[in-house]
Amino acid sequence: MQAPSRKEIAPFVFLTHLQTNKFKTATLRLSLLTQLDRDTAAKTALLPRVLLRGTESHPDMESIARALDELYGAEIEQKIVKKGEIQCLNLSASFVDDSCLPGEDGILPEVTALLGEILLRPAREGGKLKAVYVESEREKLLDEIRGRINNKDLYAIGRLVEQMCDGEAFSVFRLGSEQEAEEIDAEALTAHYEELLATSPIEIFYSGAVPLEQVEQALETAFKTLPRTEPDLDLGTDVRMNSLEENPRYFTEELDVTQGKLSLGFRLGAAMEEPDYVALRLFHYIYGGSVNSKLFLNVRERLSLCYYATSILEEHKGLLLVASGIEFEKYDEAKAEILAQLEAMQKGEITDQEFGWGKKTLMSDLRMLCDEQAQLEDFYLNQTLLGEDSDIDALIAAVERVEKAEIIEIAKELQLDAVYFLTGEEAE
Question: Are 279 and 316 part of one and the same domain?
Fold first, then answer.
């Protein structure tokens, strides 16, 4: 697959264009980028849900659905993504690629026009977003925020982040807080919507067979009324390389659970001064990010100290998180062994087999990105926000060049910042 091109097509509106005949469908994703903030996160999360309820010429969901059916069953979905301390409002269209349609006329212009209308001309009432839509979608958003607790694995990691990064924007949940969401009305959401349109940098991703010039033309037509004022140029993530306190902080929470959730949060330290993201990812794969990792093979398989043990790399923020599920009474043993595996890497105890497995697994996962357009979308947005311009083939080649000594140095820089334990109410 050839490397994509990236071009600024309007003030602070960038198009990443990946021309390929590999897929029968094309994708077009629009990402509005805004600073993650406790006071606005829920408004940003609510907005795309309301936009998809109706437009000027398609005033309800049924009308939008009919328009999509006429475009060979195209789909438009919304998603809120958190990348470091940047909140991304995504509207994504998936539709039959023009190369697979009969005749010479494709549907890219029509799909793009509909996407533009959803973003720029939503259904209004008295100049504001329709109150009935705002109220209905607000309740659904509240249900999703409250429902976080139902998935204890994700809940535990989320609680670790909230407490470890208290006072940092990264502690904010990608959908915002229940308290903020409850206070949103049509007037407040309309004001936030208009500010986002005017000031948010926008990243557009296209994957399909249509050449760049035609995609650019369709976008210029569909978004010609996009208001642009002074953009938010301070958009970014505050990377704190060191722990806030001399000793790790410990947090415990009791809920009605039958399995304990032990989560550890590390700062990546000096490894984030001039980060080598390829080496960081390989370190993560060797330590806990794959089924051949030290955590999986030793803490889970060999010692049977947990039901699962995995690491999560937050490369935008400079954090490594470890998530595990354990029996309550194995807390001390499991924590000690998770730290022992890191200490082994710091001492250089990485076998050639572990190093080779890590490289092969990471390269395999990078190749697999090319098989899913949704993964390609996320990958290139991730690269843009990291300030990286390498394509997948270049990253695979870079993995080959990483040396074991680089992994050991990264391991030495890690600092344990916080430990969170979700335990049962009846546990001792």
Answer: yes
Q: Is residue 280 part of a domain?
A: yes
Question: Which tens digits make up the pLDDT trace of 248-304?
Answer: 999 999 999 999 999 999 999 999 999 999 999 999 999 999 999 999 999 999 999
pLDDT band at 428 (very low <50, low <70, confident <90, very high): low
Is residue 229 included in any domain, yes or no?
Answer: no
> pLDDT digits over 218-235, tens only?
999 999 999 988 776 789
**What is the DSSP-derived secondary structure letter of residue 206?**
E
How buried is 29 (Cβ within 10 angstroms: 0-12 exposed, 13-18 middle, 19+ buried)? buried
Which residue type does 135 have?
E
Same-domain pairing of 255 and 395? yes
In-domain check, residue 244 = no
**C-alpha to C-alpha distance for 385 and 397, rounded to whole angstroms:** 21
Same-domain pairing of 73 and 140:
yes
pLDDT in tens, 323-379: 999 999 999 999 999 999 999 999 999 999 999 999 999 999 999 999 999 999 999
Helices (H) and strands (E) in the chain, counts: 15, 13
Same domain, 129 and 209: yes
Same domain, 258 and 216: no
Range of 331's domain? 249-424
Under DSSP, the state recorded for 55 is B
Burial annotation 191-204 (CB, 10 A radius, 16+ → b, else e):
ebbeebbebbbbbb
Looking at the structure, tell me whether residues 197 and 284 fall in a common domain: no
Same domain membership, residue 61 and residue 165:
yes
The backbone torsions φ and ψ at residue 92, rounded to the nearest 5 degrees and listed phi first, read: -125, 130
CB atoms within 10 A of CB 223: 20
CATH code, 408: 3.30.830.10
Query: Which residues touch 191 (CB under 8 Å, ≥6 apart)?
Result: none
What is the number of domains present in the chain? 2
Which pairs with CB-CB distance under 8 Å and at least 24 residues apart come from 126-130? 127/190, 128/186, 128/187, 128/190, 129/50, 129/186, 129/189, 129/190, 129/193, 130/50, 130/53, 130/54, 130/186
**pLDDT at 232 (0 to 100):** 66
Rounded CA-CA distance 88/86 in Å is: 6
Task: Return the pLDDT at 408.
Answer: 98
